[in-house]
Amino acid sequence: MSNLENMNDLVSLCKRKGFIFQSSEVYGGLGSCWDYGPLGVELKNNVKESWWKAMTYREDVEGVDASILMHPTVWKASGHIDNFSDPLVDCKECKSRFRADKIDINAPCEKCGAKDSFTEPREFNLMFKTTMGPVEDSGSTVYLRPETAQGIFVNFLNVQQTMRKKLPFGIAQIGKAFRNEITPGNFIFRTREFEQMEMQYFIKPGTQADAMEKWKEIRWQWHLDNGLDEDKLRWHDHGEELAHYADAAFDIEYKFPIGWDEMEGIHSRTDFDMAKHAEFSGKNLNYVDQEDGAKKYLPYVLETSVGCDRHLLALLCNAYTVENKGQKDERVVLKFKPHLAPIKVAIMPLMKKPELQEVARNVLSDLQKKYKCEYDIAGSIGKRYRRQDEIGTPLCITVDYDTLEDQSVTVRDRDTMAQDRVKIADLNKYILNKFEF
Ligand code: GAP
Question: pTM of the predicted model, to two decimals?
Fold first, then answer.
């Protein structure tokens, strides 16, 4: 059970162990931008794979990978150019900026303590703008997408027709999104560049309540399957406070060390987006329902949208465990589920002797055909175990002198620290069994 109390402990481990570095660190960093290091990218890829498999290895969902830059009218149609903004206030004394809806603007500035120092709130659009082509004029403005969803809406008919889909069916996508957040922070919780994993489930109008129930259940289970503790998850019902496009919305919140906050949103988006794209493009985007007398209508959409980085942060917080806290044999362990662990197996010859290394390297080259492995010869076995615990490696394999006699190795379990003696020939079966793939 995780006992992370302070996010700084996690930030420090992530840097020390090669999970996450500050972006452009040698230049002093770039605010709220982060780079995934060797272990971070493995973890992230595993998160994406687990989502992709859960969401698209099913009959009723297909995947796409749409471009980040889209026709600018997409964002006019979707409402982002006119509505995707947060209210911003400046402190006239210290020039700090705040989201007016996140602070009490009648209280003193929380940075410098000045009283009555805030400007009037003004709307600040969160989209990043850039230009396309060699001429920088207003006609060449394009936007970095603030959500991946729009790339799905505009491909609805392409996917429906090429894959001969019938409603209900979904389109899933993983990709980068960009928001010029006024107050990013809390490590990778809120950043200006992040990755979303979104699915739009196209349904017959009137069936949105059933679709909502179905996807709420599926998405909740996914977070549990990835190892998040159920008592750290809860639903937040948006009730009447809905985005302009939604008729119902629920968030899955996680209890981060900074408090409960949103990890995933499940939104009933009606036909708002499809209707807007039909209107602004002038194209007929209707679905022809052959099972209902060839009726033509715009589908309704049930969306599931989870931030990859935010779920990954929850996984790190949830996995971070200090055992025997404050004692001499304190042990820091990242208790990831095996399918998410960046390194699956560490292989360690007991000593640096060539005969042990030869066997260990053979084990390594066999196992790394399937698993990301690490080969570790530095330090005592105890130290090496602790190093692997700290990065969440589920299994450590030690090759010792007995191995040369009995063709067996010691396999040590990260969580129980129990050790099994396993024949090298049986290792693949043993690991498969342990990981329950
Ligand atoms: N298409 C719907 C949509 O984008 P959202 O609630 O704005 O909905 C969905 O975003 C998810 O994306 C959030 O639940 C969160 O996990 C993630 N997310 C949003 N803004 C983020 C940011 N600035 N940094 C990291 N993740 C973010």
Answer: 0.95
- Beta-bridge mates of residue 98: 89
Q: How far is the CA of 98 from the centre of ligand 1 (A)?
A: 19
Who wins on pLDDT, 325 or 402? 402
Percent of the chain with pLDDT over 70: 100
Cβ < 6 Å from ligand 1: which residues?
Answer: 147, 149, 179, 181, 190-191, 194, 196, 198, 262-265, 303, 305-307, 309-310
Distance 307 CA to ligand 1 centre (A): 5
What pLDDT was estimated at residue 437?
52
Q: What is the pLDDT of residues 182-196, one digit of tens each?
A: 888 899 999 999 999
The pLDDT value recorded for residue 377 is 95
Q: Report the alpha-carbon angle 136-140-146, nearest 5.
A: 115
C-alpha separations of 224 from 37, 100, 244, 257 in Å: 26, 35, 30, 19
Strand ranges inside 179-293, DSSP E: 193-203, 233-237, 248-256, 259-268, 287-289
Instruction: Give me the residue label for tokens 């498999």.
Output: 53
Domains along the chain? Answer: 2-66+129-316 (3.30.930.10), 343-434 (3.40.50.800)
